[in-house]
Amino acid sequence: MMLKLVHLLGMLACGGQAALQVSISLNKVELSVGESKFFICTAIGEPVRLDWYNPQGERILASKRMALHTETSRSRLIIYNAIIEDAGIYRCQATDASGHTEEASVVLEIYQRLTFQDIQSPQEFRHGETAEVVCDVISSPVPVVVWYYQDREITEEHHVPPVLSVSQQSFNATADYQESVTFTCITSGSPDPLVTWHRKGLQLEPSEQYIFNRLEGGRSMLTIHNIRQGDGGTYSCKATNKAGSQEREIFLKVFVQPHITQLKNVTAVEGSAAMISCVAEGEPLPDISWRRASDGHTFADGDKRQDGRFEVRGRHGKSVLTISGVRLADFGRFDCEALSRIGGHQKSMFLDIEYIPKFLTNHTIYYSWEGNPVNISCDVMSNPPATMLWRRERFTISAEGTANTRVYSAEGKSVLEVTPMSDRDFGRYNCTARNNIGVRYQEFILAQADVPSNPYSVRLSAVSQRLATVTFMKPDSHGGVPISYYLVQYKEVGSQDWRDIKSHSVQTTVVLTGLEPNTTYEVRVAAVNGKGQGEFSHTETFQTLPIREPSPPAVHGQRGMGKAYRLGLVKQDDGGMPIVEYIVKYKTDKEEQWMTKLVPGANDFAMLQPLQWNTRYEVEITARNVKGLSEPTFYQFFMPQKPDITAESLFSGLGLGAVVGLGLGALLLLLVLVDVSCFFLRHCGLLMCITRTLCSKKTATSGKGKEMEEGKAAYLYTYNSRPTTLSTTVCLCLCFIH
Asked: Which first-to-last residue range defines the signal peptide (predicted)?
């Protein structure tokens, strides 16, 4: 038995996924009847299924003679006790998550050993009769039979008609994968028969696609290259000689990847029915399904979903998706997918929905006043786009407008600007939106705006000597246009001069400042909109508090530098008059005598110093204004022990560089002190050298010679004297240097 491996190259998967590739382990195998063999199929990529198909195109299921062992990307097919009918093309097909498939195929040929059947010996005949000696032998391929008589080959003196057999009667192949298939005919006869190949009644001629070969043993082969869909069907092998002819048929089954040939965009009117048709071809014919892209819902043949609005019917490679009562939500992309065991193909179409204009707002009442322009907006959604017109009392307002009207238009929006000049300009305006589906109208009312009504429930709270908080309820009517702010007026009782204060935006709380203590005030509130100021509310009366002593100050403490302590002073209620000063009294907890410190009222802290280490202090702080003193605030704090000052503590906060710098500075200072000592005590050193240099410039040449001799003598004296003190040694070194 021979095994032929045909490796199909994996196509790249759509959408940027990893390419799927399939291969089978063997190239060619020959088996005899009764033998067993296994084949390994390996897939590269991300397969979710691996299936095997027999020569008849049926998916192989595990049985007694065929076993399957499948893992994620590897599948093994085992054929036990092979028989003649097992011959043919076997395919391994891999499928990924998107439904894309790739496959590899192998050709399995079965050989049967020569076997003589029903041999009768001796065979007896009557004299004169025609004797027919039968030699019944079976094998695959068809054997060549030679007769011998008394050890001598019997040669034919007469012509023998051709005997023709085919090793395999059916083949499978996949179109458009550059596959090839080879048919084999085995012939015998005398004379040797001529073999020709035929299809659809016509004899095939050699070409780039059809290749003919003849081998020893009467084998004739036809190889078909680059198989396409039209190559499927019946082929015949015909053997002819002078004694006659014989013909055998071979069937080629060609599988074709699904391909969608017809899918168009569809436009439907809202409320009507939409029919979307998808036509696909392939061998075998693919199954067709639909998917709505907006939500991923799928529809297959026979489905009826969503209140019966969606229905799919398909037959012979054509599927029709019918949507009854089309809604705007159905607008968008639909995908058609054709799928067979060979592979799949997907295309998309777009469903457009046309509908009558729809108004997008219920805001139909606008307010204005004479001389104040207002924009009346008509917003429309429609498909196809609508044309929009404005009407006033059955008269159309042109795009150019009139003396007090103008029209501004954009797609889906038309704005009518009206500047009322008199009462006649107020009233009803009509917006008309029209497209080829229908027409809709919306009426707008332009009403005269008014000033707001008066606020009410005016209340006073948090009244102090100089502050008061006014709260109120907003008016029942804003007059048709939004309130801009609230005007709060207040004055002293008996005065005619009202003072104004505006609210922040439309807040209904206002704080009055700069009031006089122990004074009675009147307050009223009015609302203001674009039209103007409304009526004032009912007048309320309140009285500020009289001047009194300040409230006790709040105190918080913080340790100061050294023997100092910092007290933070937080002013509370000043009683209606500024704080003149803070009186700070403090003492230790063991003393009776208080120390007093006066702090100006504008200050926010008091510094207590000098204090004693390791001592607890008591503090009493009183605030004073012109009215008098507040109640005292009591405070305590504790001064810690005196810190130890050591070398370690001094340098603990310094870095390595700072310590080294201090050391070098101390050394330099020491050298300067030593040099000055050498100058006065030994008449040498750096300072001495500088002095001599300066003096030498002011003397004559003889003087310089004398000084040089003296310097030499001084040098010799210094060298011979061998001083032992540190200062003398440093002087000597400095003299040498200079």
From this structure: 1-18
Direct distance between the N- and C-terminal alpha carbons of the chain, in angstroms, rounded to an integer? 112
pLDDT-derived band at 571 (thresholds 50, 70, 90) equals confident
In sequence order, what are the beta bridge partners of 160?
190
The pLDDT, as a whole number, for residue 302 is 67
Measured in whole angstroms, the distance separating CA 291 from the mean position of its chain's CA atoms is 24
Angle at which helices 726-737 and 701-721 cross, to 10°: 140
The label of the residue with tokens 């001599």 reads 692
Q: What is the mean pLDDT of residues 352-370?
A: 94
Least confident segment among 54-58, 351-355, 501-505: 54-58
Phi first, then psi: give them for residue 511, nearest 5 degrees: -100, 125
Tell me the helices (H) and strands (E) count for the chain, helix number first.
5, 54
- pLDDT score of 7 more than 80: no
The bridge status of strand 365-368 relative to strand 438-448 is: parallel
What pLDDT is stored for residue 665 in this prediction? 82
Q: What is the CA 714 to chain-centroid distance, rounded?
A: 92
For β-strands 170-174 and 244-263, DSSP reports them as: parallel
pLDDT, average across residues 110-127: 81
**CB of 371 closer than 8 Å to CB of 420:** yes
| Rounded-to-integer distance, Cα 647 and Cα 29, Å | 97
Name the band, by pLDDT with cuts 50, 70 and 90, for residue 394.
confident
Question: DSSP characters for 88-144?
Answer: EEEEEEEEETTS-EEEEEEEEEEEEEEEEES--SS----TTSPP----EEEEESPPP
At 662, is the secondary structure helix, strand, or coil? Answer: helix
Tokens of 575: 């009683």
Instruction: Name 20's Cβ contacts closer than 8 Å, sequence gap at least 6.
Output: 10, 11, 13, 43, 44, 45, 46, 47, 94, 96, 100, 101, 102
Exposed (0-12), middle (13-18) or buried (19+): which is 120, by Cβ within 10 Å? exposed
C-beta of residue 351 within 8 angstroms of C-beta of residue 273: no
